[in-house]
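User: Fold this, then the next.

Assistant: Folding the first:
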Amino acid sequence: MGNEFSVLDREGNLYYNIVAGATVAFATVCAGDRKIVEEKNMPSFMKHVGEIWRCANLYRMEKLETLELSSYQDSYLVHVCDRPGITQEQLSKLIYVHKSNVARQLSSLEEKGYVERRPDPCDKRNILVFPTEKARRALPFIRETRAEWNALILDGLSQTEQDQVREYLRILADNAKRILEKDRERE
């Protein structure tokens, strides 16, 4: 992860690489400190974030095609490889994806031979997810693909500007997560 442009939380866990999750983060950050962003500025900003997100997905889809992975599945594999034995529920919370989507993606990855799911011996209600050797072999290529994309989109920015982007994204992600957690507490 060293040359990936990743955003880490305070415990050092990977949030996402520079693009993943930015749309959700900004969509909720405005409410985070209760400041109102002028309506006219929001569509342009979100348009650019959305374009970056879609381009990143297309780029990864092309690159990962040889591995028969979708542009969304690489994130699952990175997290499962980094945390062998993670539960499906933990993975859902970690990547902010609905549990049913996690189950569907893991089922596909299991069919392709990338992960193995087993019942938790301590709690049969939990499903533990483990990477296979195929996943471990694919991981360096996945990380290289992510790092390549990040380098390409950051081209032309100084190191200081890159650091600023990283810090702004961290703040947006923190705000988005805080808002989501507050909403979950109310449910």
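Now the next one, as you asked:
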Amino acid sequence: MRPRVRREVPGAPLAALALARAGRHADNPPRVSALDAGTSRLARALIDGSGARARPARCPASRDEPLNRIASTLTAVAVLAVGSAPAAEIETVRASIKKHFPAAAHAQLSTTPVDGLYQLNTGARVYYVFADGKHLLSGRLFDMETRTDLTEVALDGQRAELMARVDDSNTIVYPAAGDTQHTLTVFTDIDCPYCRKLHEEMSELNELGIRVRYMLYPRAGFPSPSYDKAVSVWCAQDRNVAMDRAKNGEKPPRLECETPIAAHMALAREVGLTGTPFTITDTGRVISGYMPAPKLYESLQADKESR
């Protein structure tokens, strides 16, 4: 049975705004595909108000979701970080982008270490455009001398910026026990066993100074029992208690209200979610799957020390 939108709850206005603009029902997120399809309005409204070092266990996302086909143009104003690049060359590149991919006309364009190659940042995606304006490349750019994945460096920065723009009121927060050393944004599915395993270590994570922000991603999509559980948890008077119980296998009492879950799912697809838990660190690095708390902390500390 499809949940009815009955009332607003604190923390959901951005999703409501997105749904009003998109002209769609709160619990039926639209699909977006191809570079020229434009921004996911749900994700954009949510944020407006990978380079994982290990291969943790994860629950794969539904095959029905076109996760890797989504490209966003979240930059509202054109940002041209092209340094001393020839003006004519810049004009050629941007005119080509505007002609072939109108939705990306205002995306960020910047130079790369390679002469005649420009980086096009479209929210949580990176493409490369050649100076002739005729060729676009989707792939990875490496510095062979330093063995640095330059594409991942760019993506890390973009993901960190996107997550920083998601207000805590649109997440379920488990604060650090003392001073916050790290913040993780975790896309979670209540019924995913690896998500539950991660949740079992929540107290340990918090004691280590790790603050966790949950965003909801029921892999079964809408409609599904998992989606209904996510709605009920979000609509509970105490979301943390409701989440704890649901992660422990208890079926939450059916509740209905307006939720940002559709926006959570849209944003997850845009940042490349392939399974749950899907974690984005405060540096923008992706950890796709479950990692034991001690190893996770070590990984975060290594990030901190390397910067």
